[in-house]
Amino acid sequence: MISDIYNPTHIFWARIVSAFLYPVYYIFNLFRRSYDLNKISFKTILVTEYHRIGDVILIASVLQSLKQKFPDSKIILLCHPSAEKLAIELNIADEIISVKVPWTLWEWSPLKWVRARAFAKSIGKREIDLTIDFKGDLRNGWFLWHIGGKISLGYTATGGSYFYTHPKSFPSKMHQTNRAMNLIAVLGCKPVNDNKKLNYNENSALVLHPGVTDPRRAWPDKNWIKLIELFSVNEKVTLVKTPETEPLIQQLKQGGLTIKIFEGDLITFFNWLKEQKLLIGPDSMAGHLAAYLDIPVISIFGSQDPNCTGPLGKWVSYVTPKSLCSHKRDHWRLCKKCIESIKPEIVHSKVVELISRVENR
Questions:
Q1: What is the pTM of this model?
Q2: Is 39 contained in some domain?
């Protein structure tokens, strides 16, 4: 499995762009006032995490750590519109602002980039004291620079150290949550004590969440059908309906398999999930959400390394291929053949094992 976070080719070209931009921003930075990190009072802290819903969940504990260290500061979170309602529901920041930036969808429309810059400038009018970005993406650094916080923290995986007052080398082997925590350690922040208890509802359902937006993360429908057959005798099973799972639901109906289907928006799903027994799904938002709720999770991974981006928690178990990827593939990190190689019987045994560990705790 590959544990790198960014495509090496993209890193190569991003660093070339970074070197090209350096003289320009070096001059610009000469005219920016500098502040002492140890002497400034942070009245307003802005954190950017506008990529995916799962990314917001993964930094929830990090935002709690910031609030613990700076209880009187206003913490603002910039997130993608798809994550806005959940972020509000989780109450992980004092203010939630949604924004779409073109590079998250690989859009190169000059107009959209100009609009993103204008948005950053508008946020900067609030006179932000501290800005933080955890991604290490050159484009994120550019966006943060235009916000213009007095102090800015960020990683330099793809270059752009001049975009931050306090740049830091990118620890690519570290889990995403721990990497975010590592960045704010310079502020004296420490991990929040996790006093949450296991949320195990023994008489509720095993939740299957097969839906993923990238088909290279998807476990085959035939495997889900077999898994349902293995569990439906002794367990309550509910499948979550998403646009990607509609063909699977049709196959279940045609095959005569009776199974409960959950339908609802993200907030409805969040509140319903609290009362369920265990979640099974591929590498996606649902696993992170279940882990956040301290519900047992079985997370199915292909060639990507779960130790970098998987759900975190005492009651999380990963299912991965038996061997490292050796397939010819069209993505530097994801491999459809790898995840397809995982048999339903293996996932079934992992679920039984996790349930046994939970019930015998």
A1: 0.94
A2: yes
